[in-house]
Amino acid sequence: MALVDLTLDTSLGIATLTFNRPAVLNAIDVATAQAFRDAVLTLGARDDVRCIVLTGAGKAFVAGGDVARFADDFDNAAAVVDQLLDALHPAIETLAGHAAPVLGSVRGAVAGAGLSLLAACDLAIAADDSRFLMAYDRVGAAPDCGGTWFLPRKVGQHRAAELMLLGETWDAQQALQAGLVNQVVPAQQLAAQTQAWAARLAQRPTAALGAYKQLVAQAARTPLRAHLEAERAAFKQATASADFREGVTAFLERRTPVFHGS
User: How confident is the model at residue 204, as a pLDDT?
Assistant: First the structure.
């Protein structure tokens, strides 16, 4: 499926969304944001998607928003921000609420909205040439796309402040040490390792993984007693699934389970 400045490929339960504006390091303009929203909402309505991969074409993941568009008409910059975020917000919420794990696969510039999107992923693999920065301070703007929500939860408030207040740039190893990414690989191995992880995730019990995502997301704002009951409800709901029956049966039969995501 080809979209404006974005590609969506779905194969064997793995949906790969690729930002495809390599000439501008995949900077997000309004058309790209709207294409991203439409693609993600399409995936959100499908129960055959077992893993979602976010990546970028060329030498970068996403170098942020397309700042050049603001310079065209500063008086209407706020309206452009609304157009961008009216598209990106539903996409981010849908990815966070989707049962399928979201895997970020990045290289080169991971900046601004690109860093926010990466922080929103459940897992992340980075090429060793990756560079991570918020960049909003460089143009006198505030972070968006959930960066101030997801990033402190991933790396802690003090480490997030290095990026947001000091304007630091992290290399791949610093991002790994901070917990922003799960693994760093040579750039030439990024595609293969991403495919290996995506295939592994696509064989997991998707509904159960979705329950894990939601429980973790609500844990910080839920009292312990209420959270314990939420865990109870999630476990009880899982017992009605075909994957639960397969998992228990396979465990007792001492074989590898074959999950179908249901």
Answer: 96
* Helix, coil or strand: residue 227: helix
**Displacement of CA 145 from its chain's centroid (Å):** 11
Whether the CA torsion 240, 242, 245, 251 is positive or negative: it is negative
What pLDDT, in 10s, does the model give residues 93-118? 999 999 999 999 999 999 999 999 99
Whole-number pLDDT of residue 3: 62
Residues 216 and 196 in one domain: no
pLDDT digits 0-9 by tens, 30-39: 999 999 999 9
What is the total count of domains within the chain?
2
For all residues of the chain together, what is the average pLDDT? 94
Quick check: 62 and 109 in contact, CB under 8 A?
yes
- 117 close to 62: Cβ distance less than 8 angstroms: yes
Burial of 192 (C-beta count, 10 Å sphere; 0-12/13-18/19+): exposed
Q: What are phi and psi of 14, to 5 degrees?
A: -105, 120
Q: Give domain status of residue 233, yes or no.
A: yes
Distance CA 183, CA 84 (A): 30
Phi, psi angle pair for 10, to nearest 5°: -120, 120
Range of the domain at 170: 2-202
Domain co-membership, 238 together with 135: no
H or E segment to which residue 173 belongs: helix 172-178
Regions of the chain short of the pLDDT cut 50: 1
Closest CA to 27 of 101, 128, 91, 108: 108
**Sign of torsion, CA 38 95 63 201?**
negative
